[in-house]
From TrEMBL:
Flavoprotein as UniProt keyword: no
Ranges annotated as spanning the membrane: 143-160, 172-189, 226-251, 263-283, 290-307, 313-334, 341-359, 379-401
Subcellular location: Cell membrane
Topology with respect to the bilayer: Multi-pass membrane protein
Domain Threonine/serine exporter-like N-terminal: 17-249
Domain Threonine/Serine exporter ThrE: residue ranges: 269-402
Pfam families listed in its UniProt record: ThrE, ThrE_2
Protein name as catalogued: PF06738 family protein
């Protein structure tokens, strides 16, 4: 490893500012590639030649001679994409960025608060309710219980100390959902799908981390991708453990062979769009992105519904088509509005997240350890896990492939405009 040094002379404040900007971007949902590009833009602005070396525990800023001039931690405790947008806006201000304005923007971005707790809890409740409508929840009373359980879980995620870790906070919120699911069983409000327990858990899935991990794979940053996937995987396991543990403590279970109901096109589109609107709140994105998430989510899910119900496509194929549509619509708008694609992209397709399949599959695996198991349950478990795997792969391909192509095309357009301004 190169040795760590302290920069001297006029480079010292620039190194600090560049490292701070990179840390804000990287830990708040921006892709690794976009973060390194911003460092290049800052180098051009300040006349420096630093290289950013990203890794999971820290970001290292290297001098041209290979020594580390700044190292900042990259622990992700909560995503606040308003901070990312603030820095991008300063970089792409009319007339070009200036040093004083950019310095002020980075300082302001570091201080931007997350969305209010009351709004976060409301979004948790509304999002879980919309997801339950997608899966055909049938009891009016259960909707109220589901809303309350998800909102309470959101409150726990906010009040637990940041040092507890993302997985611990997700475990606590999912446990509350599991207890609510058990209560609904005893009250006779629950179907075999246990949507009151499962749908709040789907609000906890760390989507931007998974999507950015797939983007790292596409950029051949496999070490970062593995770290992101492991971190996100631990959170997903914690969610499943919380749901199953809460149900078990309340004397209920998560049936492996349960299936969800079908709903009409209009309800499918509205529920998917409604769920998409909640995730910009979770990620503290600029509120204007809610409209984009609503439209992209409605369009993508409507196309998916038609493909599955009218054309007979499978769930993974429908997910691929949905994500292709969302990526084609959202990528250029995110680029022009300087909003992280991971936030809008995941928000628009959150209804596709195979949480139901994953949680049922994990419940089935646990059942194998306590009994001989039933052949039908074994088949259902393997089917759920396989379907979940194919849906995740389809979502990654559908979101990333158009995003990469459109991004490359827009990069060429920007370079052509820059050459035109220079020659003019």
């Amino acid at each position: 490893m190169p040795s760590s040094v302290t920069p001297s002379g006029h480079d010292a404040p620039h190194a600090t500012l560049i490292a701070q900007a990179a840390q804000i971007l990287y830990t708040n949902g921006e892709t690794t590639h976009a973060t390194t590009e911003v460092v290049g833009e800052l180098n051009a602005l300040f006349g420096t030649d630093y290289t950013l070396v990203p890794s999971w525990p820290q970001l290292s800023l290297l001098h041209p001679d290979g020594t580390i001039v700044r190292a900042v931690p990259t622990r992700i405790e909560g995503i606040n994409m308003r901070r990312v947008s603030r820095i991008h806006k300063a970089l792409h201000a009319p007339g070009g960025p200036d040093r004083a304005g950019l310095t002020a923007a980075v300082t302001q971005a570091a201080r931007l608060p997350a969305c209010p707790t009351w709004l976060f809890c409301l979004a948790c409740g509304v999002g879980a309710t919309m997801m339950s409508l997608l899966y055909g929840i049938g009891h009016v009373h259960s909707v109220a219980l589901l809303f309350a359980a998800s909102a309470l879980g959101g409150l726990l995620r906010r009040v637990l100390p940041a040092g507890a870790g993302q997985a611990t906070r997700a475990l606590a919120a999912a446990f509350v959902a599991g207890l609510a699911g058990a209560l609904s069983v005893h009250l006779g409000w629950s179907s075999s799908a246990r949507l009151i327990a499962v749908c709040p858990g789907m609000m906890l899935v760390p989507g931007p981390q998974l999507l950015n991990a797939c983007m790292d794979i596409a950029r051949h940053r496999h070490d970062l991708a593995v770290a992101r996937i492991c971190e996100a995987g631990l959170t997903i396991l914690a969610i499943a453990a919380g749901i199953i543990g809460g149900l078990a403590l309340g004397g209920a279970d998560l049936p492996v062979t349960a299936r969800t109901g079908a709903i009409p096109l209009w309800l499918d589109v509205l529920a998917a769009a409604g769920a998409a609107c909640c995730f910009p709140v979770f990620f503290s994105m600029p509120y204007r992105t809610i409209i984009l998430a609503f439209l992209a989510g409605a369009l993508g899910h409507g196309v998916r519904w038609l493909a599955i119900n009218d054309l007979g496509w499978s769930a993974p194929a429908g997910a691929l088509l949905d994500c292709l549509v969302v990526s084609l619509v959202a990528t250029p708008i995110c680029r022009l509005r300087h909003v992280p694609f991971a936030g809008v992209g995941f928000a628009s397709v959150v209804a596709l997240v195979p949480g139901v399949y994953l949680f049922r599959g994990m419940a089935g695996l646990i059942a194998f350890t306590t009994s001989a198991g039933d052949p039908a349950e074994a088949l259902a478990t393997m089917t759920d896990l396989t379907t979940a795997g194919f849906i995740i792969v389809a979502m990654a391909i559908g979101l990333i492939a158009p995003h990469r192509l459109i991004d490359a095309w827009m990069d060429r357009l920007d370079a052509r405009r820059a050459r035109g301004r220079t020659s003019g």
